[in-house]
Amino acid sequence: MTDDQAIRSLVMHAIGELAVERIPARPLGPGQVRIAVHAVGYCKSDVLGYLGGNDRRQRAIDDGGPLVMGHEAVGHVVELGPGVEGPAVGTPVVIDPIIACGVCEACRADAGNACLNRRIVGCDAEWPGAYAESLVIPAENAVPFVGVAPLEWGALVEPLSVGAHALNLAGDVADRRVLVLGGGIIGTGVALQAERRGVREVTVSERLAERRALLAGLGLTAVPPDEAGGGYDVVVDCVAVSETLTQAIEALRRRGTLVVVGVAGPTAEIPVMRMVENEQTLRGSFACTKAELAAVVAWVAAGERDLGDLVEAQVGWGRAVAAFERYREPSPPFRTALLPRSD
Ligand SMILES: [Zn+2]
Ligand SMILES: [Zn+2]
Questions:
Q1: Domain 170-284 sits in which CATH superfamily?
Q2: Which of 1, 72, 258, 292 has the highest count of CB atoms within 10 angstroms of its CB?
Q3: What distance in angstroms lies between residue 72's CA and the mean position of ligand 1's atoms?
Q4: How many angstroms is it from 163 CA to the middle of ligand 1?
């Protein structure tokens, strides 16, 4: 193997064991494209996987060997596999990390995110992710990012789309009052989607003052948890620990809807009696559909909102592992992006 056939990647061997290594570039199969990664966001699920907050990434390693994580990415198409007509080499694209079978019941209902046979780029040893100089994905998972916005913003598309999907699961929210618990990137995606869908009010409950300031800079209303109030038609919990689930059920009106999209841990307690007595609906939300991702790509690329402040830290290979460690701090960065071609 010559050096130019090896690519630098961030390889996770086990919980707490992450290293920058040169590994062989994957051959391109039929229907696949190679993407040179421009920027990839540090997702909370990757951070929790590495820190051991849950065992999702460890289970993937147990099943298939070392893992290259990273599924919130933007880059350029650099090579087309056999039978691929596009996107053309050179096209800037956002990665849609969900690889769906296309034939199961969920896929037939345009809900590939719930595909019974789904694989997820960066969460599966068979589909190495974007903490790498390049990666290989199916051509249909490369979504052109065409517009005036800086290319880095493309790394925000996937988590913002996850927030958009969570809100969309609440049904028609026009003229409704919406509360979002947790003002990270997913919560930001929920709130921005709520605005786009014409809600009467959207409030973000967030305990960190610097995050509330960042959200205020986007024109969103963000308050400390004890000031969030109640009587909401829809609550979206982007944290999903016992404390926030309790806040969610208590802040929800009778017959209101709670959508849970957080991944903090495998179990949590909910005030079930209150939920039952008030006939509230509880719904889980996972990832997003292709249509939702395409819609968010369009408005992010068009530069409709200034999202420049959301990527707080940009790192190259030298600080790639240390940047994960920053998430042990009580006040971690809003979003970190690795730029694999910056050094
Ligand atoms: Zn993510
Ligand atoms: Zn399927």
A1: NAD(P)-binding Rossmann-like Domain (3.40.50.720)
A2: 72
A3: 6
A4: 10
Counting ligands in written order, which one lies closest to the CA of residue 114?
2
How far apart are the CA of 279 and the centre of ligand 1, in A? 31
Domain 3-159+288-338: top CATH class: alpha beta
Whether the domain at 3-159+288-338 and the domain at 170-284 fall into the same CATH topology: no
Cα-based angle 210, 224, 325 (whole degrees, multiple of 5): 45
Per-residue CA distances from 133 to 24, 73, 90 (Å) = 11, 11, 15
Question: What's 224's DSSP letter?
Answer: -
| Under 8 Å between Cβ of 236 and 212 | no
pTM as predicted: 0.95
What ligand is nearest to the CA atom of residue 113? 2
Q: Is the pLDDT of residue 179 over 90?
A: yes
Q: Which ligand is nearest to the CA of 262?
A: 1
Ligand having the closest approach to the CA of 71: 1
Question: Among residues 134, 192, 96, which one has the least CA distance to residue 6?
Answer: 134
pLDDT score for 1: 43
Distance 118 CA to ligand 2 centre (A): 6
pLDDT score recorded for residue 14 = 92
Q: Ligand 1: distance of its center to the CA of 71 in Å?
A: 6
Shortest-distance ligand to the CA of residue 184: 1
Which pLDDT score is estimated for 4? 58
CA of 99 to the centre of ligand 2 (A): 9
pLDDT digits (tens, 9 = 90+) for 287-327: 999 999 999 999 999 999 999 999 888 999 999 999 999 99
Domain boundaries, the chain: 3-159+288-338, 170-284
User: Tens digits of per-residue pLDDT, 50-75?
Assistant: 998 778 888 889 888 899 999 999 99
Question: Closest-lying ligand to the alpha carbon of 261?
Answer: 1
DSSP designation for 38: E
